[in-house]
């Protein structure tokens, strides 16, 4: 099948892995079933035979395979998938027609609501289609409404069969909005957006706010009226889906926004470029709709369409942003300003426990939809938002997570958040998350670039809502694992210490690219760990300059509670290596609790490696069983001498030794002899690394 599993993937059963890949290829049409007489036998179904081995299914491009799976001839295949499938992935989605979305609706209903799918992941969707994105989100959250004219679900019982077809989830969340707009509507939307901006600049700041609803705006657009000012300022109305019941806990269904300049007070300014107004793809000329492609060239054709449709879309006029036209600036976090009801007209079914969004830009309407669903998504256990361009929408996300945390039965225990920019400095954002989710167990947060609040001199740098951050102490939380990736610039140690003090159950801490104003600040963090985080077992530092923090490093190595310490590319031996190495070895020899030490990328060299060998001497009380010395400029003769010293001391097998990307290719014979001797003492993991080519690559990038 010409497929190779990822090296990061741990395959426990190769037969099941093969059958899973075989199922995907047959479903997409990239394997010609007719070429093999056994596969095209009428008494045998390749999809049915392999479906029981499928644990994860990937849907790509224009939803290939969704229509085939819900077809009546494959009913048994879908029933088998409903019990075997656990993970559903979407990659590189394109715009799809109504028929494909209806098929996807039935597929998600069967696999999630009546099946065993617990994880939904979306990857690399540069311009998400709102109707399709909202469909996937709402179905994942457990909401179900039969599509207009769609067949009733035979698994939902007689009550479901007797219901009249209602509007789909996209309509419930966004009103009567069609998946696409024609050219006239896009032009009218762009005109209204520009007119609204110009009027807002001319109106006085104290002008009273008026309300405009999503429905009234769209009816004006559809009617093609010419009195734009009257369209922008209709009387306040309410918008509720038919049959929707009000409840005290549900958000109000009234769409509200201010048309004056005061309503244009944006959420705090961020250095992040805000998501552009949502665009729509044009259909390719001569095509009446997207069709599922089959055959060996399907994937390459879809990639061709994906690249050139995105490029051609630049010629379109930008469509209005929902947050500007429909509800002004969206000052508050109430999702009802976009006409987002409580979805109580929908039936509630089983929902997934893990949601992952990787490189899926979230527009204002998409972010509001997600936040609206999150506020009551009690079955969600793990949420990953990676490079979604949230910007100031992060405040709405925090509000929805706070509301979710207050729900009875909330199960959210893991949050992974990463982005290029954040309107809040990363430590203030961490404090806000921990304050909003005190029951969180795992928090991983990364911001690549500093926020504007890190530069107080930037004009127009507004602060976040007062309820998001505060000077009060963080209440005690249940955090067990904290991973933080910092942008450039010195970080305030007291803020990090405040998080650590409130995390008494912390067992694992990882700091990536953290910079402190002085070694004393770093020492303050370490002292806080020693006093308040007594359960800490694993500590990791990556890409940090610790050359001036040697006393702090010794302090860590003397900590008798830590079991694993990582100093990855921390420049440990850049200064005073002759004096520091003996002190480091002495500290490790007296530590009987440390089990693992990882020192990749610290230029240890042969001399440093031979000094570390003394840790395993007869007079040492060390119980070290894992040592990582990758990327440390170690040569074959030094490794051989290291192996001989271990043999001389007669130390038993001490576990794992990692030797990746060292200079062992300079003398292959000596390197093989050293590894042979070491394997009698420990499990050696190495590679065939070309150091000369790596050095050439390094010089070429200087």
Brief account:
With 702 residues, the chain is α/β, with parallel strands linked by helices. The chain contains 24 helices and 17 strands.
DSSP helix fraction: 25-40%
**Secondary structural class:** alpha/beta
* Strand elements, count: 17
Query: What's the CATH superfamily of the domain at 537-701, by name?
Result: Ribonuclease Inhibitor
* Gyration radius, in Å: 29 Å
Q: Which fold name corresponds to the CATH topology of the domain at 537-701? A: Leucine-rich repeat, LRR (right-handed beta-alpha superhelix)
Poorly predicted runs are: 158-196, 202-342, 455-462
Name the strands of the widest sheet in spatial order: 1-2-3-6-7-8-9-10-11-12-13-14-15-16-17
The total count of helices amounts to 24
Termini distance?
41 Å
Strand content of the residues, in percent? 5-15%
Looking at the overall shape, the CATH architecture of the domain at 537-701 is: Alpha-Beta Horseshoe
CATH class division of the domain at 537-701: Alpha Beta
- Note the main sheet: 15 strands, parallel
Q: Based on Cα principal axes, name the global outline.
A: globular
Keywords: Leucine-rich repeat, Phosphoprotein, Repeat, Ubl conjugation pathway
Biased composition (Low complexity): 244-271
Subunit structure: Part of an E3 ubiquitin-protein ligase complex with Elongin BC (ELOB and ELOC), RBX1 and CUL5. Component of a probable ECS(LRRC41) complex which contains CUL5, RNF7/RBX2, Elongin BC and LRRC41. Interacts with CUL5, RNF7, ELOB and ELOC.
Function: Probable substrate recognition component of an ECS (Elongin BC-CUL2/5-SOCS-box protein) E3 ubiquitin ligase complex which mediates the ubiquitination and subsequent proteasomal degradation of target proteins.
């Amino acid at each position: 099948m010409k497929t190779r599993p990822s090296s990061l993937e741990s395959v426990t059963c190769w037969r099941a892995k093969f059958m899973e890949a075989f199922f995907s290829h047959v479903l997409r049409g990239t394997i010609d079933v007719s070429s093999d007489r056994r596969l095209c036998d009428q008494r045998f179904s390749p999809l049915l035979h392999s479906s029981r081995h499928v644990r994860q299914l990937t849907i790509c491009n224009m939803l290939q395979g969704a229509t085939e799976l819900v077809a009546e001839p494959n009913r048994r295949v879908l029933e088998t998938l409903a019990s075997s499938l656990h993970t559903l992935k979407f990659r590189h989605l394109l715009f799809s027609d109504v028929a494909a979305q209806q098929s996807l609706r039935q597929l998600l209903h069967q696999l999630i609501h009546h099946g065993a799918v617990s994880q939904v992941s979306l990857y690399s969707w540069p311009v998400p289609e709102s109707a399709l994105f909202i469909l996937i989100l709402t179905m994942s959250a457990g909401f179900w409404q039969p599509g207009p004219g769609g067949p009733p679900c035979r698994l939902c019982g007689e009550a479901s069969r007797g219901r009249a077809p209602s509007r789909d989830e996209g309509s419930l969340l966004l009103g009567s909005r069609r998946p696409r707009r024609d050219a006239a509507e896009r032009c009218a939307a762009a005109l209204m957006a520009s007119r609204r901006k110009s009027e807002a600049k001319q109106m006085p700041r104290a002008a009273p706010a008026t309300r405009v609803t999503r429905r009234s705006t769209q009816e004006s657009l559809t009617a093609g009226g010419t009195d734009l000012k009257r369209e922008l300022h209709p009387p306040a109305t309410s918008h509720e889906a038919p049959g929707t019941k009000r409840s005290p806990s549900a958000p109000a269904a009234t769409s509200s926004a201010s048309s004056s300049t005061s309503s244009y007070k944006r959420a705090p300014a961020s250095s992040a470029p805000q998501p552009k107004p949502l665009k729509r793809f044009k259909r390719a000329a001569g095509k009446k709709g997207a069709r599922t492609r089959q055959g060996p060239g399907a994937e390459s054709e879809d990639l061709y369409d994906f690249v050139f449709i995105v490029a051609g879309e630049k010629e379109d006029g930008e469509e209005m942003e929902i947050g500007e036209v429909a509800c002004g600036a969206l000052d508050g976090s109430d999702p009802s300003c976009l006409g987002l009801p409580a979805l109580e007209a929908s039936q509630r079914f089983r929902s997934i426990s893990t949601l992952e969004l990787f490189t899926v830009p979230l527009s204002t309407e998409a972010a509001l939809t997600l936040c609206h669903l999150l506020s009551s998504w009690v079955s969600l256990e793990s949420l990953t938002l990676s490079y979604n361009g949230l910007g100031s929408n992060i405040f709405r996300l925090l509000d929805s997570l706070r509301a979710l945390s207050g729900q009875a039965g909330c199960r959210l225990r893991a949050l992974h958040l990463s982005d290029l920019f954040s309107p809040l400095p990363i430590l203030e954002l961490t404090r806000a998350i921990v304050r909003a989710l005190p029951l969180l167990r795992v928090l991983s947060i990364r911001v690549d670039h500093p926020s504007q609040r890190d530069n107080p001199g930037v004009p127009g740098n507004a602060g976040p809502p007062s309820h998001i951050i505060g000077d009060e102490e963080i209440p005690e939380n249940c955090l067990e694992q904290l991973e933080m990736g910092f942008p450039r610039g010195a970080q305030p140690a007291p803020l990090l210490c405040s998080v650590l003090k409130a995390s008494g159950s912390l067992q694992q801490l990882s700091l990536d690219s953290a910079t402190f104003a002085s070694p004393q600040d770093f020492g303050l963090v370490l002292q806080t760990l020693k006093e308040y985080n007594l359960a800490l077992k694993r500590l990791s530092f990556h890409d940090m300059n610790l050359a001036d923090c040697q006393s702090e490093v010794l302090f860590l190595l003397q900590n008798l509670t830590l079991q694993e310490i990582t100093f990855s590319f921390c420049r440990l031996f850049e200064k005073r290596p002759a004096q520091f190495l003996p002190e480091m070895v002495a500290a490790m020899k007296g530590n009987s609790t440390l089990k693992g030490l990882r020192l990749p990328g610290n230029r240890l060299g042969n001399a440093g490696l031979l000094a570390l060998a003394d840790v395993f001497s007869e007079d040492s009380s060390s119980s070290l069983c894992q040592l990582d010395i990758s990327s440390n400029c170690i040569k074959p003769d030094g490794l051989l001498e290291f192996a001989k010293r271990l043999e001389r001391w007669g130390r038993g097998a001490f576990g794992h030794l990692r030797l990746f990307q060292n200079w062992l290719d300079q003398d292959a014979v000596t390197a093989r002899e050293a590894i042979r001797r070491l394997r009698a003492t420990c499990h050696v993991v190495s590679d065939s690394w070309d150091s000369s080519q790596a050095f050439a690559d390094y010089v070429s990038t200087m």
